[in-house]
Amino acid sequence: MSLFSWREVAMSPGAVVAPDERLPWPQTAAMGVQHVIAMFGATVLAPILMGFSPNIAILMSGIGTLIFFLVTGGRVPSYLGSSFAFIGVVIAATGYGGQGPNANLAVALGGIVACGVLYIVIGAIVQAVGTGWIERFMPPVVTGAVVAVIGLNLAQVPIKNMAPTNFDAWMQAVTFLSVGLVAVFTRGMVQRLLILVGLLLASVVYALLTNGLGLGKPMDFSGIAAAAWFGAPTFTTPVFEAGAMLLIAPVAIILVAENLGHLKAVTAMTGRNLDPLIGRAFIGDGIATVVSGGAGGTGVTTYAENIGVMAATRIYSTAVFVVAALIALLLGFSPKFGALIQAIPLPVMGGVSIVVFGLIAVAGAKIWVDNKVDFSQNRNLIVAAITLILGTGDFTLKFGQFALGGIGTATFGAIILWALLGRSRNA
Asked: What is the mean pLDDT of residues 364-382?
């Protein structure tokens, strides 16, 4: 396909919309809004945990997604958002206390830029020598486990952090039930917008119960009224210190593993071989991370949340992600739009997250099913079993100040286990 040229297709029940196709623009725009909502919670949460500006993070997610789209020639449907892989090392490198702006933000940005440069180098090597070696190290049993682990590892975020009261937990249940009802009992465009429609229904129920009946924390709309329509965020220039760069740059290895797992999931869903684009995908993600870090934003990665939305809607059009990126740019420069989305109740966002993260986990299982992974073979069984528990339990290993958390240990554990167990004749 040529860049910015998609073949228009009509909406039909159960149809798949390919990366080089698109629905009519109004429907494509609606899908773009849904993807913005899917990425918003995590893309805002990650910078808050590191003391970064959420507005910058949203802006850079849009810019990064457009960069990724251009570098991959518009053939890989993905959204780039704030990466959680940076949180531990950024806190270690800056000594951030966990509240308010990060006083050593510039030092962290230097490390993020260095990480992006390393990521670009890895992508260039992959582009030059091919991806056959990746297939040998990461067959379907490994990639399926890694994709599943990404969803399972993230499950603790909505369940542990987004439902502080019993009422909030019940509202999470109302939310994922709303999404489920929309997914099963509606048809057409409403069904395709299951995340967005379910979120709106749950928000209405929340407002009735809280603002109307006083059963929980009321929805606060004052921030929307007070926020300006337009306002440029505050940019920060990175400072390059060797210690922070050495600590943060190795995160590139985790980003490679995450990106590869996401690409495998998209390949399985779309039925299109994206292996020739893996190197370009790494380069695009790396450039986006450099640009983000250079302006004051977090490191970015292809987002599993949006892959979960694609799995549910079966719409893989890259036009949707261009629209989502443009909306993110608008949000980055508009405090009022940001305030509107931030007014969504925390438990409602948590309920949506439960659905999306669950869909990611199922996408990993789909890789196993589609590739007919044989779990009667002990090698496959052990690799998958250990990987799932390492990731779900957030098994962490520390190397000095560098900590490799659940997704990282599960990813590298799966790769190493597959290689080591392959030496056995009884595998």
From this structure: 88
Of the listed ranges 63-77, 247-261, 339-353, 398-412, the least confidently predicted one is: 398-412
Which amino acid makes up residue 257?
A
DSSP at 138: S
How does residue 251 score in pLDDT terms, banded at 50, 70 and 90?
confident
Lookup: tokens for 366: 């789909």
- Cα separation, 185 vs 192, in Å, equals 12
Burial of 24 (0-12, 13-18, 19+ CB in 10 A): exposed
Buried b (16+ CB within 10 A) or exposed e, 163-187: beeebbbbbbebbbebbeebbeeee
Instruction: Characterize the bridge pairing of strands 402-404 and 397-399.
Output: antiparallel
pLDDT confidence of residue 424: 53
User: Which H, E and C letters describe 236-297, residue by residue?
Assistant: CCCCCCHHHHHHHCCHHHHHHHHHHHHHHHHHHHHCCCCHHHHHHHHHHHHHHHHHHHHHCC
CB 394 within 8 A of CB 149: no
Backbone angles phi, psi at 362, to 5 degrees: -65, -35
pLDDT of residue 287: 97
Structure tokens at 61: 């997610």
Give me the numbers of helices (H) and strands (E) for the chain, helices first please: 20, 6
3-state class of 314 per DSSP? Answer: coil
Phi-psi region of 314 (alpha: psi -120 to 50; beta: other; left: phi over 0): left
Name the nearest CA neighbour of 162 among 217, 214, 212: 217
What residues contact 97, with CB distance under 8 A and at least 6 apart?
none
How do strand 300-302 and strand 397-399 relate by DSSP bridges? Answer: unpaired
